[in-house]
Structures are given as C-alpha cells and as structure tokens.
Amino acid sequence: MVTVPASPSGPPSRVEFDEASGTVLLRTADTAYILRVDREEGTVRHIHWGAPLPLADAVSLPVWADHADSFAGRWDGVEEFPVEGGARFGVPAMEVRFADGSSPVEARVEDVVLRGGDHVVVSLRERTRPLAWRLHYRVPAGGGVLERWTEFVHTGTADDGDVLLVRYASAHWPLPQRPGWRLSSVHGGWSAECRLERTGLPVGETVLSSRRGHTGHAANPWVALDAGDSGEEQGEVWVIALAASGSWRITAQRTAAGRASVVAGEGHEGAELRLEPGDRHRTPTSLALHTAHGFGEASRAVHRHLRAHVLPHPEELRPVLYNSWEATSFEVTEDNQRALARRAAALGAELFVVDDGWFGGRDDDRSGLGDWTPHPGRFPRGLRPLADEVHRLGMAFGIWVEPEMVNADSDLYRLHPDWVLHLPDRTATELRHQLVLDFSRQEITEWALGWLEQMIAENEVDFIKWDFNRSFTEAGARKGGPDAKRVHIQHARGVYRVLDRLRSDFPHLRIESCAGGGGRVDPGILGRTDQVWPSDNTDAVDRLTIHHGFGQLYPAGVMSAWVTDSPNPLTGRTVPLRFRFHGAMAGVLGIGADLTRWTDTELAEAAELIAVYKDIRPVVQHGEQFRLLAPGQGPLTAVQYLGEEDDRVVVLIWRPSTAFGPAQPPLRLRGLQEQARYRDEDTGGEWSGATLTAFGLPLPDLPPGDCASALVRLRRVEGTEA
After folding, report:
1. Spatial CA neighbour of 281 closest among 173, 114, 168
2. What pLDDT shows up at residue 279?
3. Could you tell me how far CA 173 lies from the centroid of its own chain?
4. Distances in Å between the alpha carbon of 66 and those of 177, 415, 705?
5. How large is the angle between the packed helices 442-459 and 384-392, nearest 10 degrees?
6. CA 577, CA 703: separation in Å to the nearest integer?
7. How far apart, in whole angstroms, are the C-alpha atoms of residue 78 and residue 564?
8. Which residues contact 573 (CB under 8 A, 6 or more apart)?
9. Is 85:105 a contact under the CB 8 Å cutoff?
10. I need a surface site. Which of 172, 265, 470, 717 has the fewest CB within 10 A?
11. Where do the DSSP E strands lie in 491-532?
C-alpha cells in the first residue's frame, strides 16, 4: 500500500493511494471520496462518496454498477469522467470531434501522480488519437469541500489537424444509490433572482444552464441533492457548484435503479472549443461536498471554503457604502455628488460610489457608453476634485464602470464598430441600447486596462462597481467556423485577465461584481472581486427571498444590500426605515437613497442603525449563518449569525405582513455552547446556551402592522465555558 506521507510537523495526508488496487481515497473531516483506476480497462471508476471509510476497507470495495445488457452500458453512471465512445449511454463529460470528423474515444490510463498530501492527478489519453486529458482532484485544508478540474491537451502535430472539444466538463460527480432523489437549485430572472426550489429529481436528465455568455439571472451554477428526507440541520446533502462566469451547464442524471450523478462544465450545446496542436485548455473548478447535517451545514461549509480559499481579502470587513444612482440617476454632477457625500459621511458611510452618468456624453442610457472620460458638462474639472472631497470627508472613493459594453452612439463605436459581438451580414441586436464588446480579444482587454488603470491612478479610486447590463447576441466568431460560439467561454476569461491585472497593479483596489443585479455571481468571479450585487430589486420584502436563496451557497460577507427610498422605486411598496435597514444589515450594508429628501428624524434613525450595524458587522460578515425561519413558510423570517469566536450571536427577525393565527413559539437558536450563558446586550436578559437551543429565544416585541422587524444581540457572559 502506497500513500503520501505527511511531513513530520504537518497535517496527515488528505489523499491516499493504494497502488496495487488502484484505489484513491480523498478524505475530509466528514467525508470520504473513493475512486479506482483500472489501467487494464482504461477506466477511472467511482466507489464511494459519503461517510468516512478507511483505506484498508476501500481497497476491497466493489464497484457498484447496474446490470449490463445490449441496451445499457456497463459503467454508465459509475465512471469518474465518462467519454463518448463504446457502450456508454449517459451524459458524457467529454465529447470531441477529430479532424477526420470522427468522435468515439477509447481511453487508456497513463499515470496517477500525487502532488503533496492534498492533490492527485489521473492522466489519460486517447488510444490512437492526439488527445490527452488529466483529471485533477484536490482536498483544500480546513473544510469539507472537494475541488475538481480537467486539463485537455492536443498532443499531435499539424498533420493531425485540430481537435474540437464539443463537451469539456470540469467533473462528473457520481452519487450513491438511494430510493429517491430531490434536487435543490435557484431560479428567477432580472430583479427576481435566487428563488430557491426543491423538487423531486425525475428519472432521466435535468439540465440547468446559461446560454447568455454570463452566469445569468435565470439560474446559478450549483445544485444540491438529497434523498428527499433532509432538512436544514439533519440528513445527507450533496452540493455541486461550478466556478464559471461565462455560459455553463449542469446536468443531473437519475437512473431507474436509483443512481444519480451530476456533470458540471462551462459552455452549452454549440459552444465548442478548438484545440490546435500543442494547445491546452483548463476547465473551471467544480466544487463539491457531502454532509450528514443538512442544508444549513452544507451552506456553512461552502461559505467557509469560499472565505478560506477563494475570496481575495476574506479577513477584511466590507465598508458601509453610499451609492448615488437612485438619488441622481443620469443627472449626476460634481455639485450634487458633493452634497450627497457630505450627508453620507454624516450618517457614518465609509465608501462613496458615483454611479452611471459621469462620463462621455452620457445623458441617458442611449449614448456615451464606451467613452470613459469625465462628462465635460457635469465634471468640467474632472473627477479628482470630487475624489479629494470624498477622501477629505473620511470616506473611500468609488466609481461605476461597465467596460464590456458600448452604445452605438459613442466615439468608441464609431472608431471600432468591429469590436462588438456582431456579424457584418446580420442585424446587430441592441439590448438596453447597447452592444457587447468582445473581451475574448486581447486588443480589447488591453484597451479596457489602459483607461481603467489611468482612471484609477489619476483619481485615487479605491473601489469600482463593475457592471454588465445585457446578455450576448450575435456571438459568432468573426470568421465563422465550427467553434463560432467560443466567445461564450473566452469572454469571461478576458474579464478575468482584466480584473487580475487591476488587482495586481492596484493592491488597495476593491471591486464589486454587478450584472444588472445577480447576473454574474459564481465562485469564479468571487475569486477576483470582494462583493457582489445580488439583485437590482432593493425592495426589503422581496430581498428576504433573494437573500435566502443567495445564502444557500454564498456567504453574507459578499452580499451587497442597500437601503433605498420608500415607496420602493421598483415595486412601489411602502416599508418602514427600520425594516429596510434590518433587511440590508443581513449582508454588506449600503445606502442607495436620495438623502436630500430624508427628514432629520430619518437621518438620525439611519445614523443610529448604521452604528449598530458596525457593531454587529464582524458577526454578520465573518460568522456562521443559521437559517432559523425561511421566508414564505410562516409569518416570520429569521436568520442567526454566530461570531467567529462563538462569543457573540446576532438574530434578525422580520414579519413582512400581519395575519391572525397562533402565537409564534420561541426561536430555537443553533450552534451555541450549552453550558455557557448569553446576555441580551440591549435588554440585559440572560439565558444558558442549553435554554436558547432547547426552549428558544423569547421573541422580542415587534411593532404593530406590516413590515415589522427586530434585531437581537447576544454576548457570551465572561467566565462561562469557552
């Protein structure tokens, strides 16, 4: 038995390999993932994904497979990375087309290489054709998440021609046999993102995807599966996610025998990639985990992973921001921004962001996009005087940009009409009066870097809100060809290149990802930004549902949430200021209202609530999140946050509407130390952790009427069990 030895002072290996049997064991604190490499048959087969098992047992476990007959493949649903070829009838993780037009693949195993104690690579190649692929498995430290990705290499010469990747998944995740399966995912649209849906997984194939060239509002690249009997804090749950910011596809399969599996990869049908001899393509990373402790622990495990291994600055507290969009829209000027900045600073805002309308001839959304110099009529002195004033007021200075887009009425488009996603013999489709610049082209990303770097340096910009306000159309290659839709994949990589350069050149710069709200939210973009804008819908009641779905995968510390005016600009709903603040305090608090219209009473209340938020911010942004009461399942919605040191607890409670019915029982909190005592920082009430867990937290008095809310702050009493 061969395993990777641990260093004398380091942790034990998280990857073990028994060379004789070809068995690989990936180990987290709560999970074992086991596969077997068969060199003779050229396959990598799945053994187990679930509760921990020892390697000594794993080497003798059989591969569970369905009956083989002339209508079924022997290894369907069992292979780690199924290809198209032979008796395989499930969804392939890899489908190719060789230069002669053929596509069947016959694999052979080349090698198994262990890289340290957390990473194993299984190398395969086509038996006679010029293609190799490497399956990467990694077990990051300190969590329950597994990472997988795949590398494809054209190993031939010019005589072999090109290889077309038709499907090129990051991973295929086989799950165990269960009598039934339930699928969890989020769906929606613009301003209605992140609607959580749990439904029985039918026999066959269920596909979630985006064909839009970006992650999309309609779905998000993750799924969770359970046997139909799991709850928030109990039962087995498997989560699979994809770090892809372009088009993507996740296919969940279920067989009549109860086997389930998930194929996760970028692209959609027709979004093919061409490999010339010597070319390599690395897929995005797919993240996955198993837990026996319900959907809540699954979410917290992913949150911990994103903070530890994905986010650029997870240790930082995100600032309270003010954004001027809803106050001034396109009427932004240096004078009105100065007036708003003074009011925002007096409230306690720490970051002031100038939104759309500051540049070019941008008098409305029909013109100026692409001309990234200060609007001569609105900022005749440029941006620097405003930036200096914002800094003088003690705030960081931020600016809105949309580098990937252009208006037809702009100097940039008149100079470079060939830069947009458009074919000369087709009608260019304008959405929101704008066209998409092709960020798969290096000359365009270099142009974007040039003006972004100049703007940031000249104006001492601390923060950019990077927006993206339409999906792709006419996304064919300029010269046609079978890989015409490659831009659906490569555009996002161009965005990554720009963001990576900006972060390298300006280490102080912080970035928010926005795409008409939540149209580009995924683990890939989170590796390059500090927070995301989950929805253009700022209605505080609607946001409860959006936040609930968002938090299934993403932590509160990246979720930008604004307090805006009432009635709400989108829904027309009238909501008290306190309810609006309590909703936004569930993430990264921002203000997006017209402060010049707020009364002195409202301004005083807002300043008080911002001070409270700054007190609870470490708990909300860095703590563990527990969903106590889900929106829509009763009169109340409630979320608990537990501080990093387990010494502070924050509970937010909302009642969107009143209805006569039975009294709400106490809220049973989670994650507390039973022997410790916790004191309410506002009322002085005190309870043991056992009481708060078993009996519950007595509900605070809520104001009468609709849209009532409350905030409870608990602190572990000094001297109790730590």
Report:
1. 168
2. 97
3. 19
4. 10, 61, 58
5. 50
6. 13
7. 51
8. 539, 541, 566, 567
9. yes
10. 717
11. 510-513, 531-532
Distance set, CA 420 to CA 185, 192, 367, 615, 690 (Å):
33, 29, 16, 47, 61
Take residue 89 and report the two structure tokens written for it.
């009838």
Cβ(537)–Cβ(486) under 8 Å?
no
Instruction: Scan for tokens 């995301």, then name that residue.
Output: 532
Q: Label residues 136-151 b or e (16+ Cβ within 10 Å = b).
A: bbbbbeebbbbbbbbe
DSSP 156: S
Q: What tokens does 131 get? A: 């293609």
Q: Which helix (H) or strand (E) holds 242?
A: strand 237-242
Under a CB-based contact definition with an 8 Å cutoff, are residues 443 and 495 in contact?
no
Per-residue model confidence (pLDDT) at position 64: 77
Q: What are phi and psi of 224, to 5 degrees?
A: -125, 140
pLDDT under 50 in the chain at which residues?
1-10, 480-482, 722
User: From CA 714, how far away is CA 115, in angstroms rounded?
Assistant: 45
Residues recorded for the chain: 722
Residue 519 phi, psi dihedral angles, 5° rounding: -80, -5
DSSP symbols for 42-68? TEEEEEEEES---HHHHTTPPPP-PPP
Distances (CA, A) of 298 to 207, 222, 289: 22, 12, 7
- Parallel/antiparallel/unpaired status of strands 248-254 and 107-115: unpaired
Distance of alpha carbon 585 from the chain centroid: 20
Q: Which residue has the tokens 């005749």?
A: 380
**What CA–CA distance (Å, rounded) separates 286 from 172?**
9
Identify the pLDDT of residue 423: 84
Convert 335-403 into a string of H (helix), E (strand) and C (coil).
HHHHHHHHHHHHHCCCEEEECCCCECCCCCCCECCCCCCECCCCCCCCCHHHHHHHHHCCCEEEEEECC
Distance, CA of 205 to CA of 202 (rounded, Å): 8
pLDDT of 258: 84
**For residue 179, is the peptide bond before it cis, meaning its omega torsion is within 30 degrees of 0?**
no
Contacts of 427 (CB under 8 A, 6+ apart): none
Q: Which amino acid is at 363?
A: D
Catalytic residues: 467, 536
| Token code pair at residue 660 | 């006569």
